[in-house]
Design brief:
Length: 357
């Protein structure tokens, strides 16, 4: 997540009356609780796991990041509402990112609960299982090179992470692949699983139209914009996919947003409109930058402001820089698809964009 569009001074969630990260099981609707769980890196502060009670047990939307602190807190919060791990029947996971998927797949396999994930996340999971050994390069390296950020790739590769192979217990395959849009019976409710690629290729939101609720994952976040283009293997039009998915969610009834990060928010329509405007403005910013001459995604990122404080690209830490370069590339690729920019790829993979004609 690299950019914000709304000031977050009011990060108080209406269900708790406290900052949205405050520990507890907060009732957001009849039989549905929000449990914020900690993340090891504080950039996003926490992730909301939603617990839906049914006569047959619990269905959880997302599972949290598989770290001991989060596991203990989830256990404690479930006990505070008279339940426990043994009651969990199913995990509906919005996407493959580790703050959403890893605890779901670990607990799901331990408890014999069904874990459901979008099938378009399979190439990402396959990459963990078969894609590299201790000699392979970080899978993001080539993506960063195409974005003109080879310098960033070099720094990423000096980090400790790529010396280790992925811990496959955190990346066990789901029991159920979600494919297309499907209605899922959850106790007395019908939850519509809606495929919303963009943030990741297999992202899903879950809509409970009868109760007016949208379990939004990272697709519609109330105070920040989700990162775009930060996935391996890369997809050709992540921003185009994201904006199409926003339009798809805009066509649903106006729903209360139950986001994975941030406070519960009143209107999916209002937030989707803000996100669409935000990205159109960024696209215009890219057009202005290209008017100065052909440029790589990293060059163009240098012309844009980053985070809610409009930081310069060069002021960002090396991780955020990489995300910013990849997100800018997603904007430029969409301009190409719209006929507002051209692209050329050099033999080393670096892509240069230019104003047409
Ligand atoms: Zn997330």
């Amino acid at each position: 997540m690299t950019s914000s569009t709304t000031p977050t001074a009011y990060a108080v969630s209406p269900d708790s009356g406290e900052h949205w990260t405050a520990e507890g099981a907060w009732e957001v609707a009849d039989g549905i609780h929000r449990i914020p769980l900690p993340l090891p890196m504080d950039g996003l502060k926490a992730i909301n796991v939603y617990v839906i009670a049914t006569d047959e047990g619990l269905v959880l939307v997302d599972g949290g990041w598989a770290i001991p602190e989060a596991r203990e807190l989830l256990d404690r919060c479930l006990r505070s509402i008279g339940s426990g791990f043994g009651d969990i029947r199913r995990f509906l996971v919005t996407h493959i990112h580790r703050d959403h998927f890893t605890m779901a797949t670990v607990l799901g396999h331990e408890l014999g609960a069904d874990v459901a994930l979008g099938i378009d996340e399979k190439p990402g999971l396959d990459l963990f299982h078969h894609g590299f050994d201790e000699h392979s390069e970080n899978p993001f390296t080539q993506v960063l090179v195409t974005a003109g950020a080879a310098d960033v790739a070099e720094l990423w590769n000096q980090g400790p992470a790529d010396q280790e192979l992925p811990d496959l217990t955190l990346w066990q395959y789901p029991d159920t692949w979600l494919e297309g849009d499907v209605a899922i019976p959850v106790g007395r409710r019908t939850i519509d699983a809606v495929h919303t690629p963009g943030h990741t290729p297999g992202h899903y939101v879950f809509a409970d139209r009868a109760d007016g609720l949208l379990f939004a994952g990272d697709h519609v976040l109330p105070t920040i914009t989700p990162s775009i283009g930060f996935t391996v293997p890369p997809t050709p039009q992540p921003l185009g996919d994201f904006m199409t998915s926003l339009t798809k969610v805009r066509a649903l009834p106006d729903l209360r947003v139950l986001p994975a990060h941030g406070p519960v928010a009143p209107s999916s329509h209002a937030r989707v409109d803000e996100l669409l405007v935000f990205h159109e403005k960024r696209l215009e910013g890219c057009v202005v930058a290209l008017a100065a001459g052909p440029a790589t995604a990293a060059d163009v990122a240098g012309h844009l402001g980053w985070t809610r404080h409009e930081h310069a690209y060069d002021e960002l830490d090396v991780f955020s820089k990489g995300m910013a370069a990849m997100e800018t590339k997603a904007h430029l690729e969409l301009l190409v698809a719209r006929g507002r920019a051209t692209r050329s790829e050099a033999s080393d993979g670096v892509v240069t964009f230019a104003a047409p004609g």
